[in-house]
Design goal:
Blueprint (H helix, E strand, L loop, with lengths): L8 E5 L2 E10 L3 E6 L5 H21 L8 H16 L3 H22 L9 H12 L12 E6 L2 E6 L7 H20 L26 H23 L6 E3 L5 E3 L4 H19 L3 H5 L6 E2 L1 H4 L10 E4 L7 E3 L5 H16 L22 H10 L14 H13 L4 H7 L4 H8 L5 H8 L4
Antiparallel strand pairs: 1-2, 2-3, 4-5, 6-7, 8-9, 9-10
Helix pairs in contact: 2-3, 2-5, 6-7, 7-10, 7-12, 13-14
Length: 437
C-alpha cells in the first residue's frame, strides 16, 4: 500500500549539518526551515510540528515573514490612537508618529516583510532619510502641508540634512512599530534589528562665568535705576490696566517694573537651575513654606519649590538660599502694583497687568546686548537656558555630586556627565595641578 504523500519535504543541504524542511502554503509561497538536528527520525517529527505551526499561523494571519511593514505600521497607529484616548500629549505623539511613518518609513519600506528588514536595510534607510530634503525625494518640494488642530497648515520646506537628534527621535517611532509586531506575534523580540547612530560631537553648553554673572546683574540693576532717574526728572509715570480691568498708577513705570521682574527671573534661574518653562509655570502656591519663612530672619529662611515642566507631576527641588530674596522682591512688587498680596494660584512671573509672563526673550536679549554678553567665548548664543547651565556648572565646582545634582535638576546623570564633564571643582584642580612646595 502506497504511503500518502506528505505536504512537506525533509532534505539536507551541503552547507548545513542539520536537516531542513520545505513546504508551500497557499498565498504564502515556499518556506524553508532548519530542523536543527541531523537525525532523520527527529527531523521527520520536527518537520510535522513546523508544518502544522506554519499552517495554523497562516490561518490566524500571523505567519512570520509575510506581514508587510506598512500593514504593521497601520496597526500600530490604530492601537496607539485607541490607547491615547483623549490625552493631549499622547495624541500629539500619535500625530508625530503618523507624520514620520507616512512621509518617510512607509514610502521606503512599503510592503517589505517586517522580518526582512535587517540592520543593513535600516542603515540604508537612515542614509536615505538623512539626505531626504537635500538630494532625495524632498529636494524638489517647496512647501509642506499638514494638519494642526483640524486646520490645514502650509509651511516652506527646509532643504537641510536631518540631524542626529532627529534621526534618533524618529528611530523611537520605528522601534515602536517593531515592538507592536512582537505583540501581534509577527516576529520575536530578539529579532528586532538594532541600529547604532554615531554620537554627534557635543559642544559645551553656553553658560556664564562668575565674573559675567556679576556684570550681567550690575547692568540689569543699572537699567532699573535709569528708568527711575527718568521719572525723577519729571517724566510722568505710566498708567496701565490691571488684570481686573481697573487703572493702575504706580511710582514704578511699566518698563521699570518689567526690568525688575527680569532681574528677579535671572536671580531665581541662577539659584535654582529651573528650566524656563518651569519658571513660567510657577505659581505662588508652588513655593513651599514661603509665607511662613518670609517673616523669619534672613539666615533662617528656607523654602522648597514644586517644578512643573516636562511632566504632569510636580517635582520638588531645593533652591540655593540666595533665591529667597528674589521671591521677596517679586512679592512686594506685586503688592505695590496691585494693592494686595498674590494668591496661591497666581503666577510668580507676571507682566505689569498681572498676567502670566510667557517669555522674556526680547527683554533678555536687550539686556545681554547691553552687557555685551550675548555670546560666550566660543560664539554660542546665550538664552534663558544658559542660567540653568550656569547653575549646574557652579554646583559641580563647589563639589555637589552628579547624582544629587541630577535629582535636583530633574534630569539624568547621563545628561549631567555628557554636558558638564569638563567642569572641574577648584579644589580638585589644585590637586591635579600640584605645586612647587
Amino acid at each position: 500500500m502506497d504511503q500518502p504523500k506528505l505536504p512537506y519535504v525533509v532534505f539536507s543541504r551541503v552547507d548545513s549539518p542539520s536537516l531542513w524542511v520545505r513546504f508551500s502554503l497557499p498565498g504564502q509561497g515556499q518556506k524553508r526551515i532548519c530542523l536543527k538536528t541531523p537525525n532523520e527520525e527527529d527531523a521527520k517529527r520536527r518537520a510535522e510540528i513546523e508544518y502544522q505551526r506554519a499552517l495554523w499561523s497562516a490561518e490566524q494571519g500571523t505567519l512570520p515573514g509575510r506581514t508587510s511593514f506598512d500593514k504593521v505600521a497601520r496597526q500600530y497607529l490604530e492601537s496607539a490612537q485607541l490607547e491615547a484616548g483623549s490625552n493631549p500629549s499622547k495624541l500629539s505623539k500619535v500625530a508625530a508618529d503618523l507624520g514620520v511613518l507616512d512621509r518617510y518609513m512607509v514610502p521606503f519600506f512599503g510592503r517589505s516583510p517586517i522580518t526582512a528588514i535587517s540592520v543593513p536595510k535600516l542603515h540604508s534607510y537612515m542614509e536615505w532619510r538623512r539626505s531626504y530634503w537635500t538630494s532625495g525625494p524632498g529636494a524638489k518640494e517647496t512647501h509642506i502641508a499638514y494638519e494642526r488642530k483640524g486646520r490645514r497648515v502650509i509651511r516652506p520646506a527646509q532643504h537641510i540634512e536631518a540631524t542626529l537628534s532627529t534621526l534618533r527621535r524618529e528611530a523611537v517611532t520605528m522601534r515602536s512599530v517593531f515592538k507592536h509586531a512582537v505583540r501581534l506575534g509577527y516576529l520575536k523580540a530578539s529579532d528586532i534589528p538594532k541600529i547604532d547612530l554615531v554620537a554627534e560631537e557635543r559642544n559645551k553648553r553656553p553658560s556664564f562665568t562668575d565674573a559675567e554673572v556679576a556684570k550681567l546683574m550690575q547692568v540689569a540693576e543699572q537699567r532699573m535705576i535709569d528708568v527711575l532717574d527718568i521719572r525723577k526728572r519729571g517724566k510722568q509715570s505710566n498708567t496701565w490696566k490691571g488684570a481686573d480691568g481697573r487703572d493702575i498708577v504706580s511710582s514704578v513705570s511699566r518698563v521699570g517694573y518689567e526690568r525688575m521682574v527680569l532681574y528677579c527671573f535671572i536671580g531665581i534661574a541662577l539659584e535654582t537651575g529651573m528650566r524656563p518653562t518651569e519658571l513660567f509655570n510657577l505659581d505662588w502656591g508652588h513655593i513651599v513654606g514661603f509665607k511662613e519663612e518670609r517673616n523669619k530672619p534672613i539666615s533662617q529662611q528656607r523654602i522648597r519649590i514644586l517644578a512643573y515642566g516636562k511632566g504632569k507631576k510636580p517635582q520638588q527641588l531645593v533652591p540655593n538660599i540666595e533665591a529667597f530674596a528674589s521671591f521677596i522682591n517679586l512679592w512686594e512688587a506685586f503688592k505695590t502694583v496691585h494693592g494686595r498680596e498674590p494668591r496661591d494660584n497666581e503666577p510668580v512671573f507676571v507682566n505689569a497687568s498681572g498676567e502670566r509672563a510667557q517669555s522674556y526673550k526680547k527683554s533678555l536679549n536687550a539686556l545681554l546686548e547691553a552687557a555685551k554678553l550675548k555670546t560666550d567665548v566660543f560664539g554660542q548664543v546665550r538664552s534663558a537656558y544658559s542660567f540653568r547651565h550656569t547653575y549646574a556648572t557652579r554646583q559641580l565646582r563647589k563639589g555637589t555630586d552628579v547624582y544629587t545634582l541630577a535629582i535636583n535638576m530633574r534630569t539624568s546623570v547621563r545628561m549631567i556627565e555628557m554636558y558638564y564633564s569638563d567642569v572641574v571643582p577648584e579644589d580638585l584642580a589644585k590637586q591635579l595641578e600640584g605645586s612647587y612646595d
